[in-house]
Amino acid sequence: MPRGHWTEQEKSRLLALYPDTPMWQLEVIFQRSEKGIYSQAKALGVQRSEAFMASEQSGRMLKASTLGNSTRFQKGHQTWNKGLKGFKAGGRSAQTRFKPGNLSGSAKDQLKPVGHERVTKDGILQRKVRADGPPHRRWKSVHSILWEEHNGPVPAGHVVVFKDQGIKHINITLDRLELITRAELALRNTIHRYPPELKAAIRAVAKLKRTINEVGNEKQN
Residue ranges of the HNH nuclease domain (predicted)? Predict the structure, then answer.
């Protein structure tokens, strides 16, 4: 996420949104880190509203909450394994334990050669592009690789997505792809509950705004 000077417009918007807006939404709106948003809010002297802090959105466990009471240990409770030493589970658990030399799924992925492809649980085709570095950096979506081969690196704050809802790991072609901002991606992920007509209208408006911004940037340059 970009860092740096906050404009007066951003500060005014943060003053209006910070009291009642969840942090994950603020990160999408301002394209800044949680730490950066907290720091700026503190500098502006703006705080969360009482209504927000009393809601589930705050992520706090309210004092009056009884959540988890039914599963807590009660006073005087005796654990099932008290006094047992060297306990060894038998039956099915013994059959499903890792044996010496067994590798987890992530360890097996590390052994795959560069160029190997896999399909994620979300149906995305990924290709191993490097053997070193953090695990999440070693794999890259094939559709992003294809887009970058023709258009260059994906700009910061943007992501390559499929225009359609077809199968994402088969017949990956440029005409199925488009570049959008992460803010627009977050918006798309929140409109899934809307009817198709409204979804289409929201996406059309977002695309129009993106086109207007691109034209404006070209004129400035």
Answer: 142-186
φ/ψ of residue 137, rounded to 5:
-90, -10
Residue 126 CA to residue 137 CA, distance in Å, equals 11
Whether the CB-CB separation of 151 and 125 falls below 8 Å is answered with no
Residue spans per domain, the chain: 7-58, 105-179, 191-221
Length of the chain: 221
Rg (CA), the chain: 25
Q: What are the structure tokens assigned to 128, written together?
A: 């191993």
Residue type, 160: V
Q: What CA–CA distances, in Å, run from 97 to 71, 81, 92, 101, 213?
A: 27, 20, 9, 12, 56
Amino acid, single-letter form, for residue 138: R
Q: Which amino acid is at 104?
A: S
Mean of pLDDT values over 140-168: 91
For residue 175, name the pLDDT band (cuts at 50, 70, 90).
very high
Q: How far is it, in rounded angstroms, from Cα 199 to Cα 201? A: 5
Distance CA 31, CA 44 (A): 18
Nearest CA-CA partner of 23 in 158, 186, 161: 186
Runs of H (alpha helix) within 69-194: 92-96, 105-111, 135-138, 142-151, 182-190
| φ, ψ at 30 (rounded to 5°) | -95, -10
